[in-house]
Amino acid sequence: MYDFQLVKPSSVAEAIEALGAEDAQALGGGQTLLPTMKARLAQTDTLVSLAHVEEMKGVCTDDAGRLCVGGGTTHAAAAEALKSDYPALSSLAARIGDPAVRARGTMGGSVANDDPSACWPAGVLGSGATVVAAGKSGTREIGADDFFQGMFTTALEEGEIITEIRFPVPEKAAYEKMIQPASRFPLVAAYVAKFADGVRVAITGASSDGVFRWTEAETALSQDFSAEAVKGLAAPDAGGMISDLHGSAEYRAHLCKVMTARAVKAAG
After folding, report:
1. Number of domains in the chain
2. Of 179, 205, 218, 268, whose CB neighbour count within 10 A is largest?
3. What residue numbers bound the domain in which 13 lies?
4. Is the pLDDT of residue 1 over 90?
């Protein structure tokens, strides 16, 4: 690991100011960034740790009835806090990695990193959530459909951090994933959420472009919310799917159907 300076702000304002330094980078739970730096695949002069920014932690409800999860909330804390109000999202958080990862990793860090096989992006996109980002120019709200822009690419601007994500609560929802045993990342996973005005289906782990909405499944499930409706669909195009030693592109395309159908059944 290369030498770097570690800054520990205690407020969002202090964190944003620290990130204004040249070559400064935010550090959430460090579950991706630190191993990358240890392998000398990444380098930064200054790490701005968000671990002590208490205003970015916890879960509350806003005036619109949305569940607001702080960007600095760990996976373990989110899993516990969301148990009664949003069980599907709680289940997603409770199955990320292993206990050590869940104790340190944060929701905001995962969403900002936008790993193509991460769990949280599926929950955010599948829920139609709103990402709240703060930076030197102020605070702005970004809809999930606009936030994720490809592998490791989001709408965040330089120096911005995710302070909160606001989740509308659906009538029914579930998250099902095929776990890759070595990494605990999903080989393919589906997040299905049924709202009064339709169904959203988000797939992660499959596409080389990262998390995406499977619109054909959304249309079918909005008309008939059943696993049978999914089984009658053609699998998504395998052309843009990830292909590696764990599974071919065609296999991942097939798993999109399988995991979506399982999620629908789990949602009841």
Report:
1. 3
2. 205
3. 5-49
4. no
Q: Can you state the angle between helices 120-127 and 87-94, rounded to 10 degrees?
A: 160
183/163 same-domain check: no
Which is nearest to 114 in space by CA: 208, 44, 237?
Answer: 208
* Final residue belonging to a domain, choices 145, 167, 189: 167
Q: What does the pLDDT average to over 213-237?
A: 97
Letter string b/e over residues 119-135, b meaning 16 or more CB atoms within 10 A of that residue's CB: bbbbbbbbbbbbbbbbb
Give the C-alpha separation, 165 to 130, whole Å: 6
- Alpha carbon distance 8, 131 (integer Å): 23
Q: Indicate if the pLDDT at residue 55 is higher than 80.
A: yes
* Last residue within a domain, chosen from 133, 167, 201: 167
Give residues with Cβ within 8 angstroms of 138, minimum separation 6.
none
The pLDDT, as a whole number, for residue 227 is: 97
Question: Does residue 74 sit in the same domain as residue 106?
Answer: yes
Percent of the chain with pLDDT over 90: 89
CA angle at 99 for the pair 97 and 103, rounded to the nearest 5°: 100
What's the predicted TM-score (pTM) here? 0.96
Predicted confidence (pLDDT) at residue 182 exceeds the cutoff of 90: no
Closest CA to 190 of 179, 175, 178: 175
Give the pLDDT confidence of 152-167 residue by residue, as tens digits: 999 999 999 999 999 9
Q: Where are the beta strands (DSSP E) in the chain?
A: 5-7, 24-27, 46-49, 59-61, 67-70, 130-135, 138-143, 161-167, 172-179, 186-195, 198-204, 212-213
What is the DSSP secondary structure assignment for residue 76, as one 8-state letter? H
Give the CATH number of the domain where residue 206 resides. 3.30.390.50
